[in-house]
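Backbone shapes recur. Consider a single case.
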Amino acid sequence: MSTKANRYAHQLLDARACTTLMPLLSDADVLSPMDGYDIGKRILDASIGQGATSVGRKLGFSNRTIWKKYGVTKAIEEPFWAHVFDTTVRYAEDNRGIQSLEGALQPRIEPEVVFSLGTTPSPYASIEELADCIEWMAHAFEIAVCPFLNWKFDAVDAIARVCWILCKRNFV
């Protein structure tokens, strides 16, 4: 998958750079969720390679109304997260901020919880030990975008898209 993952990652990055819609990845190939994570990892690596520095993480929320569409049959118990970067986070002064939507493909707003770890938790940390590792935490919102027409996509496209938007705009 590595060659395909690189190709798909760069197609997504090109769509973002050129502000253009693109066909679904899942229309071109049979892809698994793990392939989506592989594509996402390559987008993350490319972003870091271009100079982006992670300043924290965001926690995602599960929209239960769309579970059936993606074949989710049991509750999503684990949190899902992504990096937020110095190149994309905007800090709101006095609880106010202005964000241009220029270059945002099909923008939507999403609530987020963002945080930064001051120390690395152990792999088996309890919730209390994990909380002790948090340096800062904040409410935020994200201008979420989508390179797929009308926000229609399969699960693997959604996984890759989450990694694609991690380099977009967040307000903290």
